[in-house]
Amino acid sequence: MTQVIAIDGPGGSGKSTVSRLLAERLGAVHLDTGAFYRAATLAALRAGVDLEDGEAVTAEVARHRLEQEAGRMLLDGEDVSADIRTPEVDRSVSVVSAYPEVRRLMVDAQRDWVRRRGGTAVVEGRDIGTVVFPAASLKVFLEASPEERARRRARESGLDAEAVQRELRRRDRLDRSRATSPLRPADDAVVIDTTELSVDEVVDRIIAALGRVGEASPPK
Question: pLDDT averaged over the chain?
Answer without folding.
Answer: 93
